[in-house]
Amino acid sequence: MTQACLSHARPPDATKSRVRTIVIIGAGFSGAMTAVNLLRLAQRQPLRVVLINKSGRMARGIAYGTRSAEHVLNVPAGNMSALADDPEDFLRFCRWSDPDVGPASFVLRRIYGTYLEALLAAAEHRGGDATVLERETEEVVSVRLDASGERAQVLLGDGRALIADHVVLAFGHFSPADPPVSTPSFYASRRYIKDPWEAGALHRVGDDEPCDVAQQRRLARSRRPDQRDRGVLGDREVDPAQHGTLGVGLRDAADLEDRRHRRRLRSQRSRIRASGTVTHR
Questions:
Q1: Which domains does the chain have, with CATH numbers?
Q2: What is the model's pTM?
Q3: End-to-end CA distance of the chain, in Å?
């Protein structure tokens, strides 16, 4: 964050500042789940949570913002619940759209992002009027204590200043830096993939092409098993670990919801036919 002079900022909203306010900077997994748990634990006590993310993509971050079908979770679905008090929550979420998903299945990362979005939306509506979740798509340029020293002023890039009782820094992982090389032109080569999470990044690597993986063990684990090239981690050559049960082909949120409705409709039709209240001519 860069420093900015608060004297030019628009004054904060005095009405909102009376409610206990927690500002969360960063809306990947850590920021989103911090918001979820704060809202769940508020127990209908007045609370305002402000979730700020410069990119506008809430509950995704780098890890779960990928759209690639080649990026699957490193951990099986049975161990990926985001709720400590409900260890099968994520597994149930997956099975709503695909009953074949089991505890040992490795599902797509983007599906986990959809799951986090659903948790955030549920927590937002759970507390009723007492709790408020605000989403801000903006850059934070400064965080400072106010004149009393008891609250913080969070200055946004558009000039607004938020007053907060607490500020949570949930930056997560930044984009990877370029590795040191003797020939800087290498960075412009099609063979150099700086960010493996970028959409379509791995399509530049053929199935039969060798691939050196430098300090990116996650990439090796997130590739499909038909891409069995060898990678180099540091000065050690290794075989990328493969998933036991590979990425169930789940779809995006709209498709998931559509499939749920079709299943319910089929179930209702079956019950009606079984009751004998409908005759076919």
A1: 15-235+242-250 (3.50.50.60)
A2: 0.65
A3: 71
